[in-house]
Amino acid sequence: MNTIAYRLTTPTQPASRGISTVLRLALGVVWLVAGLLKVNDPDGMLRSVRAFRILPEALVQPVAYGVPFLEIALGVLLIVGLAVRVTALLSALMFAAYITAIVSAAARGLRIDCGCFSSGGDLTADAPTHYTSELVRDSLLLAAAALLAWRPGGYLAVDRILDKPVNDRSRSDTDGLEF
Amino acid sequence: MASNSKTRGKGGNGRNTPTSTKPAARPGSGSGGGSAPRGGSGPGGGVRGGTGANSAAGSNSAAGAGGGTGPARRGKASAEDRRAKAAAARAAAAAQERRRRNLIVAGVVVVALIVAGVIGFVVQNSREESKPVVLPAAATGSHNGIIVGQASAPVTVDMYEDFQCPACEALETQTGPTIRTLLDQGKIKIDYHVMSFLGPESKRAANAAAAAANEGKFRQLHDVLYANQPKEHTGGFTKDTLLTLGAKAGLTSQAYKDAVDKGTYDGYVAKVDGDASKAGVTATPTVLVGGKQLSGTQLTPDGFRAAVTAAS
Fold first, then answer.
1. Which domain, by its residues, includes B190?
2. Does this UniProt record's set of keywords contain Disulfide bond (chain B) (predicted)?
């Protein structure tokens, strides 16, 4: 019964919980770092978002200014472990969007830095693009986020505390009935 | 998912430990079904529990006709059954409560994330105090680019450069002399769009260049800055360096010093950079001769000369 596959995929197994915890904290740190690196360079973000030439000019500014804060918020939520499934799903969506954007930029032959971990955007003419490594990295992050959405129940999460009172109340019901 | 299986485990526990219960629990488990409405699915559970108990009792009495232990067994079985049903109803109610709670938490978190994004937008917007755009005297080109050369020159060259960009420095070293010759011969005029995306030093240098343009000495400072380009991302072009380099280019006026010091043209620099990026310039150096962008191989002295000849 307790095969390795069982231990890894059964949400109540310590192995599964442990992996979930590691994924959650790692993703949280990635978001936090990515957001903090960008938050102090609104100019760079603006250029970076614009350089992809996907969003209309009216949306460039809100996205460029809002996204770093969203990333920091996601990072904090993941690290404390609040609503892990929701934040993991959102993370996966965002990574999917980033991947789409990079693929589209590469397909259109744009020479830009993805601005993933800092302000990117324009590259000087002979600077190399790093589309492949950027895509590999974002795909790994997407996979991690998807795994976490599948098994959000790790250790050290606020979700676990929030989950408890429900059990306690049902127990107090039975206590009252001398069960 | 983890929580679900936990509930299931609890339900199983209730079913497996009937031996520890006292007979007094029997009426209790009935009222347990009654208390289920709290969870919402209660009424159904209660009714089902009732009929279940009835049929169990019926079959037990039929089986019990043979043996003397009948009544006792019957009572135990029906109590067990009812207890199991009640436990299931409670588990269902708890699961629903948990679902409701999870939904609320998820909703709150999503709203919080949206609020975080909006706050970010507002904060960054207010941080970007839009500085006044002061146009230097020579900024008469397209998108307020700085025009260098004779107005009568037949070919206009648009140059998008960043003073801190090494590739621009390479271009200036390699093709710069050719460009200067063509400028002096009156064959071209240059519309300089100074971009500034390589750190604050980029912006400081662009501001200084605008101040130089205001005194008609853009070209001189431009050449001096490229001849003394610091390494990228080392904060190289400080205000002091720009004053020293300005002096080398013949810029010693108080106006230049003040402009470098106060960032008089910061607004202009930001505007030019923004306009260039909106125009789709995604790399520096970007060179357009007569409106046509040159490829990398055309940036050599021969390539540039040929492009100018073709455009004139």
1. 142-311
2. yes
Answer whether residue B137 is part of any domain: no
Residue B136 within a domain: no
Q: Would you tell me which residues 71-90 of chain B have a C-beta closer than 8 angstroms to some C-beta of chain A?
A: 83, 90
A40 Cβ neighbours under 8 A, 6+ residues apart? none
Please give the single-letter amino acid code of residue B33: G
Of B70, B94, B127, the position where a domain reaches its end is B127
ipTM of the prediction: 0.79
Terminal-to-terminal C-alpha distance of chain A = 32
Answer yes or no: is B134 within a domain: no
Q: What is the pLDDT averaged over residues A15-22?
A: 93
Tell me how far apart the alpha carbons of residues B182 and B190 are, in angstroms, rounded to a whole number. 10
CATH at B169: 3.40.30.10
Asked if B157 and B148 touch (Cβ cutoff 8 Å), the reply is no
DSSP A72-130: HHHHHHHHHTSSHHHHHHHHHHHHHHHHHHHHHHHHTT--EE--SSS--EE--TTPPP-
B230, pLDDT greater than 80: yes
My answer on whether B156 and B264 are in the same domain is yes
Mutate to test the interface with B, among A170, A171, A172, A178 (most CBs of B within 10 A): A170
